[in-house]
Amino acid sequence: MENDVVLVTGAGSGIGQGEARAFYEAGARVVLADVDLSAVTALAEELGENALAIRLDVTDKAEWTSALAVVEERWGVVTVLVNNAGIFRRAPLTEQDVEDWRRIFDINLVGHLLGIQAVHPGMKRNGGGVIINTSSTAGMGPAPGLSAYGASKWAIRGLTRTAAVELADDNIRVNVIVPGIVATPAAKAAGFPEVVPGQPIPAIGQPRDISAMAVFLASRHARYVTGAEFLVDGGASA
Fold first, then answer.
1. Residue 19 is assigned to a structural domain of this protein
2. Hey, what's the torsion of the CAs at 103, 69, 211, 215, to 10 degrees?
3. 200, exposed or middle or buried, with CB in 10 Å at 0-12, 13-18, 19+?
4. For residue 74, what are the domain limits?
5. Residues 41, 112: Cα–Cα separation, whole Å
6. Which among 38, 106, 163, 219 could bridge 59 via Cys, Cβ 3.0 to 4.6 Å?
7. Which of 143, 147, 222, 146 is nearest to 177 (CA)?
8. Separation of CA 225 from chain center
9. pLDDT for 206
10. For residue 27, what pLDDT is reported?
11. Number of folded domains that form the chain
């Protein structure tokens, strides 16, 4: 992927950090975007000259515009967008705070939309590109205690299919990765176990499991793949 410029949101930790590392190792120039600038700055310094740290609040359209301007001045058009940034919070449905619900949707869903809108003009000028969205198994079936999170992840699946169809004429492929439980700081804080009894592959996933799928979907090997969902969940949804 030596000719690619890859922007990963939420690259400061967890899955996003793993994806950023994987794309860097694949030869891409990687933009590490996160609201935590110190985290992505440290990662960029660790990776090397082909990594660029940028502060980005994915809910702010103006910040998307500014970030893309910085990237294009340095490296040119973003050819791959990985919409990964998101937040996870629990609450019983009957006690779900509406403002908290809106905040979750703003980050998890609106952030994806703004990312797609931001990179589209450049990708179109460049003759195409790849967008990878991030859902969750909580967006595949009932998720008690996760009404806002689960609903936002359900919506990302619909957004992905619509974007794949609408952007096809611009040669932009859009797919969505659906992770199961992955060993991240957020998963640990939420109290998820490291082993899930009854799951076909009982151990929870590692960030590299999601990263491998992301690199494949961004590569030329996936040239005939768009509008699709890729479950990386140890068989949980089966």
1. yes
2. 140
3. exposed
4. 5-232
5. 23
6. 106
7. 222
8. 17
9. 92
10. 96
11. 1
What pLDDT sits at residue 90? 87
* Residue where the block lists tokens 């931001």: 118
Torsion of Cα atoms, 200 then 224 then 138 then 155, to 10°: -170
**Catalytic member of 149, 155, 196, 230:** 149
Tell me if 42 sits within 8 A of 89, measured CB to CB.
no
Give the angle 208-212-214 at the CA atoms, nearest 5°: 115
CATH number, domain with residue 207: 3.40.50.720
In the numeric block, the tokens 């076909």 are attached to 200
Scan for tokens 């804080």, then name that residue.
189
Structure tokens at 19: 């994806």
Q: What does the pLDDT read at residue 187?
A: 75
pLDDT score recorded for residue 28: 97
Four-residue CA torsion sign, 44, 49, 51, 52: positive
Q: Assess whether 24 carries a catalytic annotation.
A: no
Whether 238 maps to a domain, the answer reads no
